[in-house]
Amino acid sequence: MNRTTSAVVLALCLLLATTATAIGKSIRGNPSAETLRASAGGSTIRAEGGSDTLIGGPAVDKLFGEGGHDKITGGEGDDRIDGGTGDDKLKGDGGNDTVLGQDGHDKLWGGLGNDQLLGGGGPDKIYGDAGDDTIVGNGGPDYVDGGPGNDTLTNDEGQDTMIGGEGDDLIYANGENRVTRVDCGPGRDTVVLHPLDDPHHGDGDLKRQQTGMIVGCEIVLRQPTPHVANRGVKRYARVWSNRTLKGTNLDDRLYGGHGSNRIFGRKGRDKIYGDASHTSGGPRANKQRDELHGGPGADTIMGGQKGHKAIWGDSGSDYIQGGRGSNTISGGLGDDTIRVLGNGRNLIRGNAGDDKIEAFGHGTMVIDCGSGKDVVVYGTKRPRTRNCERIINSWSKSRR
């Protein structure tokens, strides 16, 4: 074998070795820039140093860019992609992928599927694309766009811009520096604001909502203040919007807007208010209808000032105060206290339990106490009653 033939054979051997390494089950690159492809059956690829291109196959792949400015595409399987250090471009492509940006100024795309994307340190741009994605901005001022689907977006640190996109999204604005902007987009979306540790800050997050930094979000929540046990959320409906608010299983405070509200306390000892201000709203408020549900637990339900109130205490020993207009009230299970001040048409059902019903309004009062040992106390106008064990005129009693 002459020198020329030996060189050709050596070159072919090196080429075959490189091909075998680049397309295989377990691939480890070198410090130079290279293109590494996964096999059809799934691969684990570690690029080492260099600005590399990693391409996944149809199966489940694990792709690690490590050092360098890498370009990584996952393929069709449920892949795990880790960019490592450097300014990387990471695409999940098909499948339910997990994409980690790590350090650097990264760009992440989820692609099709229900993906999990984590930005890491540095200012990143993250796009969920189609599917119900979970995205965390992490450190740095990030730009996060959930895209189509019911996405969950979270910012941990930095002044992020968070775009919900199409779908019913849940957005957590948790960063200590607050978000720069939250745009929920089309769909029925919920934004959860960071708790205000400093009492001097007041309702700063709500002011952001009013000044346009939080837009297009149907439900706005505020997380509980830290170190307070069993505290739920504060939830506000926007002014003059018809909204459905739902509490948690903790002790919530739920405030309706001036529009027609449907509020569900769920479990816990909740405080529910039919309208946000109790005193304002103007003539439009007289035409609004609120539907308030206490849920399980000993709840406090306040009808507010104007409009028609339909109130259900549900289970638990509740305190229910109707609005100043017309009320339809059902105490539900438990020993309830129901106070009616309405000047309109009022229908009150005590239901089960030993209830106390106070009828002090000047409108029409029809009361069905239901089962249990019930007491009705009224003022100047006697109500029509049924199934009530005791009926007391508070005015005549005070004159004795």
From TrEMBL:
Residues 32-102, 123-154, 272-305 are annotated as: Disordered. One of its GO terms (molecular function) is calcium ion binding. Residues 63-94 have a biased composition (Basic and acidic residues). It comes from the Bacteria. It is found in: Secreted. GO terms for cellular component: extracellular region. Residues 1-22 form the signal peptide. InterPro entries: Hemolysin-typ_Ca-bd_CS (IPR018511), Hemolysn_Ca-bd (IPR001343), RTX_toxin/Mannuronan_C5-epim (IPR050557), Serralysin-like_metalloprot_C (IPR011049). The keyword Membrane does not apply. Pfam families: HemolysinCabind (PF00353). Keywords: Secreted, Signal. This is Secreted hemolysin-type calcium-binding bacteriocin putative.
